[in-house]
Every structure is written in C-alpha cells, then in structure tokens.
C-alpha cells in the first residue's frame, strides 16, 4: 500500500527517513511529502497550496493510500479525507487532532516577517520533548523551517460528510489512548467525535516519534495499513 507521510509544523519530508526505511522493509511504499513553504524555499505558500500537494499525492497513488499526518498536519490529512473520501483507505493521526471547519489551521505562536518560527523548547517542556536529548534538540532547531503565515492562518473548510466514513487511527505518543478518548468525549476534537470508524494506538514517546521511535512508529503504521 502507498502510505503518504506528512510532517507537522517546521518539518520537511526528510523527517520521515528512518520511518520510511522501516516501512519499506515491512512491504509498504512510503511517500514522504515536502509541503510548500516547508522545504521548497517558498515564503508565500498557503494552506491551499499545501492541501493541493497532498491531494496530488493521493491522486497519484497506486490504489487507495493511507494518509499519515503528524501534529498540526493532522488537519491536512482530514482535509484530504474531506476532498477525496472515496480515494483514501485510512487516515492515521499522530499526536494531533483535526481542526474544525472555519477555524485557523495552526495559529499557535507569534508571527513575524510573515512566518511562524519554531518558538524554542519552552512550550514543549514535559512529555512532548522528554525523549529528545540535547543533541536531538540542537539538530531539530537547526533544521526547523519557519512556516508562512498563509499556511498557519489559513482557514479550514470542511464540507463533505463522507469524511466521517474514512477509517481513522489516532496514534497516541505523549498522551494515552484513554486521554485521547476523554478529549473527544469532552468536545475538544469535534471532528473525531463524529468519525464512524476510529481506533487508537499507544506509543511510548514524546511528540516527535519519527525522530525518537521510528521503528516502533513504522510497525504501528504498517499494522494500521494492514487492517485497512
């Protein structure tokens, strides 16, 4: 199965290198995506541009792909399910939940000079970054790509209720499946509250398991793809 891999904020497609290698050995075809504004040098990219890149990859896939997304990009995977519900076998959401219709995509941190830079480790201290040592943190910072404001403040538009029919797995790194279910039950993830086929997978890691637990993450995604 083709498995599209979408990194979250500040990341390009290379963040999936070790996961992709492990997935190939498990018999799947990983397709890491580098999004406009996150590795192609563009500072004018928009959320629509990023979604167009994801949809192009869905359309080019052999058969129905599984769309995997990390953190803020979980919304991109969900937008793809909204635009191509009949073309996607499954959505896997790692460490994040889809943003609701009408809300900004990822307006989380200060914007300056038209971009949202990596804000440093302060907002991520605790479970998010506990498994990143000093060297890994320096490497992350050195490679972090400032995300254009046209992406972060782009407005999410969802329209096709068939997205709720697309099977979904929530991969839970810095939180547990029980905590994820509690968030959904409390109304903090309204899109997933309406998903008709949702599973959870536990992963003992911080917020960036593709960096710290690539083999384990690959096995979880391969199992999800097999179930699809």
Automatic annotation (TrEMBL):
<dbReference type="InterPro" id="IPR029058">
    <property type="entry name" value="AB_hydrolase_fold"/>
</dbReference>
<protein>
    <submittedName>
        <fullName>Alpha/beta hydrolase</fullName>
    </submittedName>
</protein>
<dbReference type="GO" id="GO:0016787">
    <property type="term" value="F:hydrolase activity"/>
</dbReference>
<keyword id="KW-0378">Hydrolase</keyword>
<dbReference type="Pfam" id="PF12697">
    <property type="entry name" value="Abhydrolase_6"/>
</dbReference>
<dbReference type="InterPro" id="IPR000073">
    <property type="entry name" value="AB_hydrolase_1"/>
</dbReference>
<feature type="domain" description="AB hydrolase-1">
    <location>
        <begin position="3"/>
        <end position="219"/>
    </location>
</feature>
């Amino acid at each position: 199965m083709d498995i599209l891999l979408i990194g979250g904020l500040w990341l390009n497609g290379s963040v999936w290198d070790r996961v992709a290698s492990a997935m190939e050995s498990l018999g799947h075809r990983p397709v890491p995506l580098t999004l406009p504004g996150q590795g192609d040098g563009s500072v004018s990219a928009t959320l629509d541009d990023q979604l167009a890149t994801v949809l192009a990859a869905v359309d080019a896939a052999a058969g129905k792909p599984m769309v995997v997304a990390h953190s803020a990009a979980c919304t991109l995977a969900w937008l793809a399910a909204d635009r191509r519900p009949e073309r996607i076998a499954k959505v896997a959401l790692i460490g994040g939940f889809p943003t609701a219709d009408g809300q900004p995509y990822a307006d989380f941190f200060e914007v300056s000079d038209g971009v949202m830079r990596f804000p440093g480790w302060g907002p991520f201290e605790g479970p998010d970054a506990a498994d990143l040592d000093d060297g890994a943190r320096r490497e992350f910072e050195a490679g972090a790509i400032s995300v254009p404001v046209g992406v972060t403040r782009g407005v999410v538009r969802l329209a096709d209720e068939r997205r709720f029919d697309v099977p979904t797995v929530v991969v839970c790194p810095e939180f547990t499946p029980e905590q994820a279910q509690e968030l959904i039950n409390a109304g903090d993830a309204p899109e997933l509250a309406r998903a008709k086929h949702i599973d959870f997978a536990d992963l003992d890691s911080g917020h960036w398991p593709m960096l710290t637990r690539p083999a384990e993450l690959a096995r979880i995604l391969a199992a999800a793809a097999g179930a699809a």
